[in-house]
Amino acid sequence: MQNKGLIKVFAILFGLVSLYQLSFTFFANGVETKAKEYAKANVKDNSGRALAELERKYLDSVANKEVVNLGFTEFTYNQISSQEMNLGLDLKGGINAILQVSVKDILLGLSNGSKNEVFVEALKKADEAQKDSQDDYLDLFFNQFESLSNGNVKLSDPSIFGTKALREKIDLNKTDAEVKDVLRQEINTSVTTAFDVLRSRIDKFGVVQPNIQRIGTSGRIQVELPGAKDIDRVKKLLESTAELQFWEVFTNADVIGYLSQANVKSLELLNKKEEAAKETTNAADSTKSDSKINELLGEEEAKEKAKKSLFSYLSVNGSAVSPQIGYAKVLDTAQVNKLLKSKELRALLPRNLRYVKFLWDYKPITPKEKPGEEKTEDADFIALYAMKGNRAGTAQIEGDVIGDANQDFHPTKANQPVVNMQMNSAGTKLWAKMTTENSGKFVAVVLDDYVYTAPSVDEPILSGNTMISGGSMTVNEAKDIATVLKAGKLPAPARIIEAQVVGPSLGQEAINASMWSFALAIVLVLLWMMLYYGKAGAFANIALVVNILLIFGALASFNAVLTLPGIAGIILTIGMSVDANVIIFERIKEGLNSGNDLMTSVNEGFSIKGALSAIIDANITTLLTGFILYAFGTGPIQGFALTLIIGIFTSLFTAVFITRLFIDGVVEKGGSLTFNTGVSKNWFTNISMDFLSKRKVAYIVSGALIAAGIVSMLTIGLKQGVDFKGGRSYLVRFEQDMKANEVGEALKSVFGSAPEVKTYGSANQLKITTVFKIEEKTKEVDEEVQAALYKGLKPYLGTLDYESFKPGFERLENQGGIMSYMKVDPTIADDIKRSALWAVLGSLIVVFLYILLRFRKVAFSIGAVVAVFHDVLVVLGVFSLLYKFMPFDMEIGQSFIAAILTVVGYSLNDTVVIFDRIREYADKSDSLTANLVDRALSSTLGRTINTSLTTLLVMLAIFFFGGDSIKGFMFALIVGVVVGTYSSLFVATPIMFDVAKKNEKK
């Protein structure tokens, strides 16, 4: 081998750079371990939140202090943490969310809230169409507008987009096509602004190595915050529009008369609904229904239920004059809103209250618990305010009037956090006017339709300075309010349409499990290579260890994210690295067996005509699969694809060059290498099998397997994951073993129908999947569903309160609660499914073209693609047949598609090696004969079995010891490897031979 010195230099440099990059992770982990120890030693309130705050306090204290001194340079914690390896959510915990910027709200803003009937109806129909369409909302709106206007109303109409704000871009002479281009540009600008605003907020949040990126032109923004623990705080930060408003306020004395009338009217309304419900029930089964009600509620309770009214949910504030007009339990706010917005109650409003706007306080009030009294979540209550609205529904001061904002403490109330705001010149004038006119009255500071403070104005404020000072505001809340105000207002609401939350406890468990499986897989491979190839196997093992070092070093250098599937990808590349050495060693053995000396055999084994051609072909097909996975995947799937891609390059370098450095060293010194041991010496030698003679049997077996799978998919179906069908999925841990069917029945009362409940891993963990309220679009709905889940599970949770039940913070020992959570809107679920389909089809097309280009014969491409289709259908069939019986998750989702594409890559890898040998034999023969193909298959059988066994050993290690969340993924790979090995021998090659013979006859 030429340029050995250069290769040694590169290998040493790459190794040193990798060790240097990984050292930051080592040192950062040391500091973070000390932070955890400090938190546990000093915590008083033994909760996940308290531990997290103390950890953050410790890390903040050493952020800019020297924590590493290498003699020639020093590093602070901030410096090493910014360069440590990025861990994904499944290893570190945190939140990964996709936000949808509301295009509808942008259109409403551009039209200045147009009331044009055609415009309003087009928006309404676009909303309906979006539920069943994959098109962008803007295109749906354009289609509906064209259909409704019928050419009689133009988009440039002054009542729609021909407004003063857009007069420089849109006039009456503009055609609809020209206006559409302007609107597309405006919406793109708005989404870009939203992206910049969110990035500014996230940068100030304090999470190490956050990731935010736009997804195409869809108006979607992906945000990943590994290590984030306060999930509620993150959601508020992301979804807050930062729409600041200042309102004049009605007092409780101003509205008490109206509320009393509304209460009487609501009694009538609720009674009518109760009677209607009774009539419907009686029509179905009167006697049975009445007896059930009487049994469950009793006669008196049933009568009392019929007497519900507004005051059943809202307690009117009858004390001294106050801006708080009443209080309601948090769980009852939806019912109060519904009643106060009903047309029947709005019709009772007197002239001075005609445009009143009811808003809630931003934070519930929790009553102080009495000694020995158990805290209940429904005891929390929240204050209601009444704003002085107008016909337009706008506040007295609104818009971007804030020049600066910062968190501070109240000047007279010790340690009370506040937000100081400085208004710009326009805001200062408006604020001075408003406080002058309302001297002695109340004004409210409202952010995103929540009242943060409603102080009494003692005297006019002329300076433009004001303060938000909610009584129970925390320092973090004050910081976040200041952050969103300084970052600016979102041009339109952004709603989380897909979210994945993983608690740090689950992440740590995943790391521990993956490290065990990783170590075991490596040990098994190292032992196998030593057993099979002896001294040459030891050289391959050294190359393998270097390969692992380079992969992790590359991931750390490129700031790539390491995920659980990513670790699986690394372990898979270990198998591929071994595969390359196996192909080379088998070639060298063939040379030695044919009588060549060691040097000649080694040179031939490492040559293009020897093993290198097959190695390159096999790795390119897998590389193409990796690129497709990376292009179409998101989150953990991209992590898997990235490690696969990096691993292919490092595997080629180490298997071909590092291994040869050691082998050439032995050859040049006149040493001997046999490439086997006393145990493996006669394995897979002198094999001669008639593979093609058995192809009809193989066709029947494969046909039966595929037919059974298709029948199962058509009848039983496949278990689609949340990311393919939409919904919410919670992984909940309990302090005791649970029965899934019992919990499902218990949750029926809160969800309306029984959710899907299945034991996940250990018997004290359940995976609960529901579509309850998944179609609702409000920001509060996620919290409502989570609260309903807690209510339904409360009998099984002991003393665990709602805050501790939520996902995010670290779990104390044996503490239950939500370990992870996933939500996917049905609209984005359809997009994910479509992308997955294109990924699979795209990989098949690319592979077909590559093999056609490489082997120059259609027969080879057809054989390979048919085998791949065969493998995919068999794996799908196995999942359809077994998902109800296996004790682990076998959902069809993004991870499964990644597994399918990996199976495609592996199967092709195996097939290409065999095809390469067939082509080599065919080049020395006049025609492609059955005997020639059988000899090629027999000669590669040792390599095929060897590689399959090592890969299976690796995958079985991950499957049994790699954690519950990856079992379904690994099971698909295991089935794929077995089926792929079989199809390479008994499907791809026979199909190729039969097609080639038919072509010869033609």
Please provide a written account of the structure.
By secondary structure, this protein is an alpha+beta fold. It has 31 helices and 23 strands. The longest helix is centred in the N-terminal third of the chain and has 55 residues, at 252-306. The protein is elongated and about 105 Å long.
Short descriptors:
elongated, 12% strand, alpha+beta, 5-stranded mixed β-barrel, 1002 residues, 8-stranded antiparallel beta sheet
pLDDT averaged residue by residue: 80
Radius of gyration over all CA atoms, rounded: 34 Å
Low-confidence stretches: 280-302, 369-375
- State the distance separating the first and last CA atoms: 46 Å
Number of helices: 31
Strand order of the largest sheet: 5-6-4-18-23-20-22-21
Q: Report helical residue fraction.
A: 55-70%
Explain the layout of strands and helices:
Elements: H1 4-42, H2 48-61, E1 66-69, E2 74-76, H3 77-81, E3 86-87, H4 89-92, E4 94-101, H5 103-110, H6 117-130, H7 137-149, H8 176-203, E5 211-215, E6 220-226, H9 231-239, E7 244-250, H10 252-306, H11 310-313, E8 314-316, E9 326-329, H12 333-341, H13 343-346, E10 357-361, E11 381-387, E12 397-398, E13 402-409, E14 417-423, H14 425-437, E15 443-447, E16 450-453, E17 465-468, H15 475-487, E18 494-502, H16 504-533, H17 535-557, E19 561-562, H18 564-593, H19 598-605, H20 608-632, H21 636-668, H22 695-715, H23 722-725, E20 727-733, H24 740-751, E21 756-759, E22 765-770, H25 781-793, H26 802-805, E23 817-824, H27 826-855, H28 858-882, H29 894-922, H30 930-961, H31 967-1001
Concise overview:
The chain has 1002 residues and is α+β, with helices and mostly antiparallel strands.
